[in-house]
Write a structure and sequence with these properties.
4 domains; Alpha-lytic protease prodomain-like; about 475 residues; Alpha-Beta Plaits; rod-shaped; alpha/beta
Length: about 475
């Protein structure tokens, strides 16, 4: 979520909470005065219910202010859980109001106390006004809560939505009580405390729903909106990413309006670190497309894929030991595999250390691929220092001899950019030849490698002073650019 959107969201939540608080204050005062003047327990119970909503609105306003504070060193995941704590406090208040309302209503019913209701149109007007206000603010709070993913505002929205039904129950109870008093029907006179019991039952039902949501939030349960459709779509999108073998674990929790997603992905173990990072970025974007602004942490597990070849398995074992091998060749005869490979080790390493390293590596490779019967490793020294070399001008004769040797290979179309350096390999009189070699575009790399290797071998055979011929192959089309 961008900083601008975050600021706008915070302002929207605060505005909704302030409007709700002002509305609750006005409605609570009207219900209280009307209940006292009319002598209606149902009306007083509604006033008590509205007073709880007033307290809840005040707590919500304070909560949304604090919950939107950014994360700090002590609260790495932000302050969003304050919304759940405010909901927990609200639950305590609602349970207390249920007990008080039910106790008063049962006492009136059990003791058969005659109700002395004073007829007035004001209770009905106040209840109708309350239902209209509750409907308006419930819709407004629900809209903002859905947009900003606010638990505190959603709790208020549910409260005020049920206030409409509780007010309607009191409205009918008062009407029945007045009619019973007028017609001298005792059963109808007790409609008012019965309406109070209905209000208590509604409050208890809302309290139960809110308690379940609050406990789930405090226990970091998977948010309801991601348990089914989004979670299923999330796994589908992640597995569709190129390079992701499987999604091993998805954990989603929410703190305030922020989502925190923890993923474990299986990736082919032959991937480079850079490619793994690219896949991780793509997976993060896939999560944030479904859960905008989510904080995503991804753990990757290198995994052997079904399509791995013997070459892949051998290289994976070397990579696991942080070793570099090249020129791997595999032969099969007598029903077994025979592997040859080149391994580079630091030039300062002793032969004993290098041999022990290779022995351990070969043993691990044979455990990984039981079909390998023999392993032959050519140990090379990896240069750790920059060799001093001096460029020398190629003689006409040497260049001519290079071109003559190249003409022995019909695949070589041209050689160019020939340079010579002296001092390669630690010998002051050794010579290295660098050149570019043009070959057909569609020539397979296997054939390319064979041609340039044979070219180098033939030339060095005729020129022992040349320690190395470094050839860069390029396609014919590139040469014509």
């Amino acid at each position: 979520m961008s900083p601008m959107n975050q600021v706008q969201g915070t302002a929207a939540k605060r505005s909704a909470a302030q409007s709700s608080l002002l509305a609750a204050m006005g409605i609570t005062l009207l219900k209280l005065l009307t209940g006292i003047l009319a002598g209606s327990l149902g009306m007083l119970s509604e006033a008590a219910h509205s007073f709880i909503d007033l307290i809840a609105s005040a707590i919500t306003l304070l909560t949304v202010r604090a919950a939107d504070m950014p994360a700090d060193e002590e609260h790495n995941y932000g302050h969003g859980k304050l919304e759940s704590l405010s909901a927990a406090f609200e639950i305590v208040l609602m349970v207390g109001s249920c007990v008080w309302i039910a106790r008063e209503a049962i006492q009136r019913l059990v003791h058969h106390k005659h109700l002395e209701l004073r007829w007035s149109v004001w209770p009905f007007a106040v209840l109708l006004l309350s239902m209209a206000v509750d409907y308006t603010r419930s819709r407004s709070l629900h809209r903002v809560a859905r947009e900003q993913r606010s638990d505190a505002l959603e709790a208020d929205a549910v409260h005020f939505g049920t206030d409409i039904w509780s007010s309607a129950a009191v409205f009918l109870g008062l009407l029945a009580a007045f009619v019973g008093e007028k017609l001298h029907v005792p059963a109808l006179e007790y409609a008012d405390p019965l309406a109070a019991l209905i209000v208590a039952a509604i409050i208890l039902r809302v309290t139960w729903r809110l308690a379940r949501q609050t406990v789930d939030s405090l226990l970091d349960a998977t948010p309801p909106e991601v348990r089914e459709q989004i979670r299923r779509d999330l796994i589908r999108d992640l597995e569709a990413e190129d390079g992701v073998l499987s999604v091993n674990r998805v954990r989603v929790r929410r703190s305030g309006s922020n989502y925190f997603v923890d993923l474990t992905l299986s990736l082919p173990r032959k991937l480079t670190f850079q490619r793994s990072e690219q896949i991780t970025f793509a997976a993060t974007e896939a999560v944030q497309r479904l859960l905008p602004g989510a904080d995503v942490v991804i753990h990757t597990v290198p995994t052997a894929s079904l399509g791995e070849s013997v070459f892949d398995k051998v290289r994976a074992v070397a990579a696991r030991s942080n070793l570099s091998i090249h020129d791997v060749s595999v032969r099969q005869y007598d029903g077994a595999l025979h592997v040859e490979q080149h391994l580079e080790v630091p030039e300062t390493m002793s032969l004993r250390e290098a041999h022990d390293l290779v022995t351990a590596l070969e043993a691990e490779m044979q455990r990984e691929v039981p079909g390998i019967a023999t392993l032959l490793t050519h140990i090379e020294s990896e240069p750790a220092t920059i060799a001093e070399a001096a460029q020398i001008d190629p003689s006409k004769n040497l260049e001519h001899q290079l071109r003559t040797t190249a003409s022995h290979f019909p695949e070589i179309l041209d050689i160019h950019e020939i340079t010579l350096t002296r001092g390669h390999g630690g010998a002051a009189n050794s010579v290295q030849v660098n050149l570019h070699c043009t070959l057909p575009d569609d020539l397979p790399m296997e054939a390319v490698h064979e041609v340039i290797t044979n070219f180098e071998s033939e030339f060095r055979l005729d020129h022992p002073q040349v320690s190395r011929v470094f050839i860069h192959p390029e396609p014919a089309t590139d040469n014509r650019r």
